Amino acid sequence: MNVFILVVFFGSALAFPFEINVNWPFIVADEQTNNMEAFFKDQKIQAEKAFTSSIEEARRMKNSVFNYFELKQREISDDFYDYVESVKESGRKFSDSWSFLPSEEAGDRMENPDMVLSVPSIIIRNGYPCETHIVMSQGYLLNIHRIPRSKNGGGIPKKTVILHHGLFASSADWILNGPEKSLAYILADAGYDVWMPNIRGNKYSREHAWLKTNSKSFWNFSWHDVAVYDVPAIIDYILKEKGEGTKLTYIGHSMGTTILFAMLTMRPEYNDILTAGFALAPVVFLSDIKSPIKSLSTVASNVAQMEMLYGSYEFIPKNSVLGKMTQSCDVDGRDAAVCKNLLFYICGYNEKQFNKTLLPIFLSHIGTGTSWKTAVHFAQEVVVGGKFQQFDYGTDLNLRVYGSKAPPQYDLDKIKLPLTLFWAENDLLSSEADVKELYKRLPPTTQIYKISDPDFNHLDYLWAIDAPTLLTDKILFYLEQVYSTL
């Protein structure tokens, strides 16, 4: 689960105050209609008061969260606090249009081109081959970035890995830490064919065969739809592309793990199609979540309310998250206090594993777009605690969609795929208790591994300085275990 979106979510209520603009047409033919007109005017006033009251309540809840963040501010190191101030300055040089993919020419003009280059361009710039494949699922045109072999050449290996990113993220997650530390490059050099999908709605998968991007229908999806339709379509495409004998393993981070477990329950045939699954920071049960976003979940657990409140079906409309973040951090007071240490607030404090020189690059690729429904589905998971369930539409609509008042739970008993879970003590989003509860409900063949660094957090799986020794070596070890038995 990525984190910078919270600045947009709670900062915009301050930046863009709401206006009530309700047009009530009245046609008054004679004096006998005056009473009716007065009645409807009174109803209008009451409706406006109720709406305004709900907005004020949302703002009060938001302010209480900001106050919490201000208190937590004191627990974060002054060094990181000061460093983010300097990053704000370089942030002003970033592109202000998140939906466009910058060119190599733009990258050459910057001190670090990776800040503006697209994922394929970064991969090629680092000397690796790269391909872009497009898979259509329910009309969505999904871009998959592929590193088919090592930079040293050779044939395309049969051992194949899918790397699926987390919430508000993209395939960039797997390459931004550089060739020596990023999982995608290390797997390619170890003899794996690496495929990195992009979820529907992010900046690489924003096209649809018949729906417009600004339509409500385009954004009417959650991670459930990705699990049931998109990832199976991607798996089928890869196996068809590569041919007989292909051994395919799925590795997901955060929401990428949620998608894996939902798919294995809803499409159980993929338990036999995949070779193994690796879950980095599993997000299935969220009853013991330690992150401050737990207190925000009750506010953001209804799609219609969020869409009405922010006037968009997309969670991050139009402007870049980075642009919004920089703008919000320029504001003195509580907004700045949130922005300056948002990473550590949400994911866990671990300064020694955080590569400060790469922070501008990370920021430039974070927040690639998703639907309100996706974010709300996670908020619902937090609210219900120890349940892993489908989207909750409310009692009436649940009866129409599911035939029951409550949404169905995903049946983890259907999972048969060999799995390995990775967890970290300082991960505030994927806690020890929740991961171990998941482990108890999975097949006895499931393995579980605790990261040895006690300060390892939710984003260290992607960006840690010592990721190769703390995590990647263990992934390679378990992968070789899997393939040695085939």
From TrEMBL:
<protein>
    <submittedName>
        <fullName>(African queen) hypothetical protein</fullName>
    </submittedName>
</protein>
<keyword id="KW-0443">Lipid metabolism</keyword>
<keyword id="KW-0732">Signal</keyword>
<comment type="similarity">
    <text>Belongs to the AB hydrolase superfamily. Lipase family.</text>
</comment>
<dbReference type="GO" id="GO:0016042">
    <property type="term" value="P:lipid catabolic process"/>
</dbReference>
<feature type="signal peptide">
    <location>
        <begin position="1"/>
        <end position="15"/>
    </location>
</feature>
<keyword id="KW-0378">Hydrolase</keyword>
<dbReference type="InterPro" id="IPR000073">
    <property type="entry name" value="AB_hydrolase_1"/>
</dbReference>
<feature type="domain" description="AB hydrolase-1">
    <location>
        <begin position="160"/>
        <end position="463"/>
    </location>
</feature>
<dbReference type="InterPro" id="IPR029058">
    <property type="entry name" value="AB_hydrolase_fold"/>
</dbReference>
<keyword id="KW-0325">Glycoprotein</keyword>
<dbReference type="GO" id="GO:0016787">
    <property type="term" value="F:hydrolase activity"/>
</dbReference>
<keyword id="KW-0442">Lipid degradation</keyword>
<dbReference type="Pfam" id="PF00561">
    <property type="entry name" value="Abhydrolase_1"/>
</dbReference>
